[in-house]
């Protein structure tokens, strides 16, 4: 299963979500899970933002090798599940052919009980990045749990 996390610049929220999901998938031995990220307005090749790098480092997550990539029709078509940070991201993904496999991260993680956007820390201070990281950590854990449960035979 190929999961894609999408935000705007692919330098803060979606790279953090990708790294957290990759770590959780490894911890749960979900070897069939492939995780990536992209941005609706990304500058291809840009590194993760300084705030995201620093806060991720505080939490033992390495974003040093991350390079932003622009969301394309090919990335959308090559993904099985696309989890977006906000409704405007969902609109863009669906315009590129992602209808039916695209969800707000919070809505997917909560099985429809929440439909809030993930706060964008870009341009904020380190506390903004810490808050966004914690929010993403919770939501990604719930999303990975849902994926694991739905992909395990005999479980609902």
- CATH architectural name: 3-Layer(aba) Sandwich
List the helices and strands in order: EHEHHEHEHH
Rounded to the nearest angstrom, the radius of gyration is: 14 Å
Beta percentage is 5-15%
Give the overall silhouette. Answer: globular
- For the terminal residues, how far apart are their CA atoms? 18 Å
Count of helix runs:
6
CATH superfamily (homologous) name: Response regulator
The CATH topology name reads Rossmann fold
Mean pLDDT: 96
CATH class: Alpha Beta
Unreliable stretches covering 5 or more consecutive residues: none
Strand order of the largest sheet: 2-1-3-4
Find the structural class using helix and strand composition.
alpha/beta
Total domain modules: 1
Q: What does this entry look like structurally?
A:
- By secondary structure, the protein is of the alpha/beta class.
- The chain has a single domain (2-151), classed as Rossmann fold (3-Layer(aba) Sandwich), CATH 3.40.50.2300.
- Helices cover 46% and strands 12% of the residues.
- The protein is built from 6 helices and 4 strands; from the N terminus they run βαβααβαβαα.
- The protein has helices at residues 13-27, 50-58, 73-77, 87-98, 105-109, 126-151; strands at residues 2-7, 34-39, 81-84, 102-104.
- It has a 4-stranded parallel sheet with strand order 2-1-3-4, sandwiched between helices.
- Strand 1 (2-7), helix 1 and strand 2 form a beta-alpha-beta unit.
- Helix 1 (13-27) crosses helix 6 (126-151).
- The longest helix has 26 residues, at 126-151.
- The protein starts with a strand and ends in a 5-residue tail after the last helix.
């Amino acid at each position: 299963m190929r999961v894609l996390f999408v935000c705007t610049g692919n330098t803060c929220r979606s790279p953090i979500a990708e790294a957290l999901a990759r770590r959780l998938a490894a911890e749960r031995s979900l070897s069939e899970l492939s995780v990536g990220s992209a941005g609706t307005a990304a500058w291809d090749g840009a590194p993760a933002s300084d705030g995201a790098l620093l806060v991720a480092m505080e939490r033992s997550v390495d974003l040093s090798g991350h390079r932003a990539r622009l969301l394309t029709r090919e990335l959308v078509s090559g993904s099985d599940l696309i989890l977006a940070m906000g409704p405007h991201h969902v609109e863009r993904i669906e315009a590129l052919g992602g209808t039916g496999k695209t969800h707000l991260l919070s809505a997917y993680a909560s099985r429809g009980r929440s439909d809030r956007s993930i706060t964008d820390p870009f341009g904020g201070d380190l506390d903004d990045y810490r808050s966004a990281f914690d929010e993403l950590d919770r939501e990604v854990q719930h999303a990975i749990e849902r994926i694991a449960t739905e992909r395990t035979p005999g479980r609902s």
